[in-house]
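Lab meeting prep.
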Amino acid sequence: MSTRGEAFAGLSVALITPLRDGRVDYETFKQQIEFQVEAGTRCLCPVGTTGESPTLSHDEHERVIAFVVETVAGRCKVMPGTGSNSTAEAVRLTLSAERAGADAALQVAPYYNKPTQQGFFEHYRRLAEESSLPQCIYNIPGRTGKNIEPETIIRLAEIPNIALVKEATGSLDQASQIIAATDLTVLCGDDSLTLPMMALGARGVVSVVGNIVPRDVIALCAAMDAGDLAAARSCHFKLFALCRDMLGLSTNPIPVKAAMQLLGRDTGELLLPMTPLEPEQLAMLKKSLTAYGLL
């Protein structure tokens, strides 16, 4: 089935934001971006949850987006996080990303203030009206406090430049309803659910573990696209323990930043209130990376 956001099918990586002494480390960031481009990653998603958007300043947020767009230079798609629990602020960030040359906008559901379903609808409609960028609805009620119900997303699908959903509810039932009723490109928002979500018709994943092993996630997506379930299962089970630890040992992005530090690809620095792994958690992460063959 053709979907309106098909250009974003495959692997999108939810980039970490590398830090050094409390500031964005752009030299390391460039290396991480080049690593993704060389791997063949379809789309980069800076300043999302994994990119510590809640703790970057607005100036840093906008500069990171511009830097990623400039560094990529058209070699892959860029879909930055530009969402907010203030519709006016989300519009401002989205228009800034559009001026910088982003290809789409990842819009987290308004958080903390817990809008009604009509509130969600009006929020996304306003974003679609104000910006010409394809809009990706990012539904992650575990963080935002409220689910965007499938019926609301189905209504939103009638708006032309709402093109994608990052589906991170963990509910295959919800994903099924959206995929069955719309032509939106659905991207999995939970690494460990990529295979079952793609089996339902999702077109890829916005991945955290892709920061570390993008080629392996690409192989999983390609196997599912090719209908090779045996190969896809093999990829899934290879990735599964790593996915579990990246998102299960502690709050994202704490484990993935620790892993990147262990692999010599990041300082591992976080912005408060995020804090490093405890020693026993770090030992478990090292064991997982070693079992995978990365250490």
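Slide two material, second protein:
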Amino acid sequence: MNIGFIGTGNMGKILIEAIIESHSLAPSAIFMTNRTIAKAAAINKIYPETNVMDNASEVIKHSDIIFICVKPLDIHPLLLNVRHLLRRDKCLISITSPVQVEQLESIVNCQVARVIPSITNRAFAGVSLFTFGNSCSNEMQQKIEKLFEGISTPVEIENEITRVASDIVSCGPAFFSYLLQRFVNGAVKETEISQEKAVQLASEMIIGMGKLLETELYTLPTLQEKVCVKGGVTGKGIKVLEEELGPVFENLIKSTHRKYDEDIEEVRRQFEK
């Protein structure tokens, strides 16, 4: 099975690296291209057995499964140019949330799926979100899931929860790394701890917390209960968080959904021309 990547920006590169280093696929089975071909060549320099192609058409010709890793508004014009190459035995996978599988199926005759990855997949961890088109056979679904099982926990989702699921899985690492950095900055500003030491302690804390949750010894609420002794230091800190955070996460979700709705509308206009 050969896998193609049209677009080797941040997420395309992360997927290629994770798939190769998890031994989910041999490097020689990867065919890739990018608008700026130097980006694909840079990956090839690290993994010389991979194949850099001149354009999207060449990637499709050599691949059984093709990942489209470009911006949402670049997908429609790209597919119009290459759809004659997308035979029924091939599978096209979009990794962007505003483009629905039904929209892809409206202009290509091949099998279609959407997989929304996360940067955590680079460490063979976290979740990848799956939505399969009606065109996608059971056999192809199993192949895609097996590919991602080596780098993530695949979870199938409905269109209705695409944005919020992406907020948690794909955007979540950025949101919580920002909060963790603010936590570190506050500690450095208000005490004698160095930036380096605070970052080390915070990083090890978040890794340990993840491992605790992974063991299922604690849930998020019970973990808080175990640490937060009534009337103690942690309780005082939680009270500040309750007072200061307010509806910040509700507002965050509202904001991402507003942007998502704008993106969906722009994509809809393209596909309905």
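Talking points for slide two:
The first strand starts at residue 3 and ends at 6.
The mean pLDDT is 94.
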